[in-house]
Amino acid sequence: MTKSVLEVDSVQKQYDGKIILSDVYLKCETNNIIGVLGRNGSGKSTLLKIIFGIVIADFKFVRIDGEVKSKTSELLHQISYLPQENFIPNLFSVKKAIVLSIPKDKLDEFYADEMIQSILSKKVKHLSGGELRYLEIKIILNNPSKFVLLDEPYNGLSPIIIEKINELIISISKEKGIIITDHNYENVIKVSTKLVLMKEGKLHHLKDKNELVEKGYLKLGMI
Amino acid sequence: MEFTIRKLANIFEFYKSTLTITISISVLAGVFGGFETFKLVLVVFGYFISVLIKEVNAVNEYLFYCNNGISKLQLIVCGFLMNFVFSALLILGFSLILKNL
User: Which of A45, A78, A81, A101 to mutate to test the interface with B (most CBs of B within 10 A)?
Assistant: First the structure.
């Protein structure tokens, strides 16, 4: 299987004169799970939105397999994005949301899941918060993109569903590159193959999780 | 090929989601302004009011379509074209019925 490379370079973003992102560089390859950690308001979500193309940066370069992608429409075919808020139209049935997103040859595999089977006949608006988040994450991970951006996937989920999601992320990373950000740092550390820390607009590439303490994101004993 | 069919199905679903508001507004406009107003609202204004309401109430839903490879602009333009064609056919049908009455 050929490896794909997503490179985000020289990202700069200011809001009301305040620097949110300054000269950010991030590289993600197939098989990578990059954990982006950082305090509230550090610019993690903004970075993911800029990569996906739904927030305009003051300056950015996004390259996929060495080719610069300047139009959002070019990025949408290769990157998928899980926002913090629910995004599947409420009026859809679960089955319709799946059929509209997942290629035919992957449908059987997608349906072979106890939790998906239990919600298949329901409408999206009748799902519980956990069921809907699980469905969204599974759709995002299984659609035909090369890279996946996950913004707070663990938010509001029970430990058992979190464990299922971690298994999904690890399994899908065999064929895709994944960038994940969440305040649930223990699970981010658990699934990530690389860690980066967003601090004061800069992205720090970490060699070891203990650097999270050295750089002031965690306190001693929290890891 | 399968990707294109899925993309068209996504656009059609988006268009369907605008229909309730478009038709309601058009009928209301028709009641007060007659058949000519009904036609104008059905073809142009109803759709854009529906998109505007979506912009306020369900802006996150665009991300569902973005994740299926369709940008917001593509979705709105293609939805408008679909609305134009279906409205034109509907108006033609109505006109023929009215002519034969």
Answer: A101
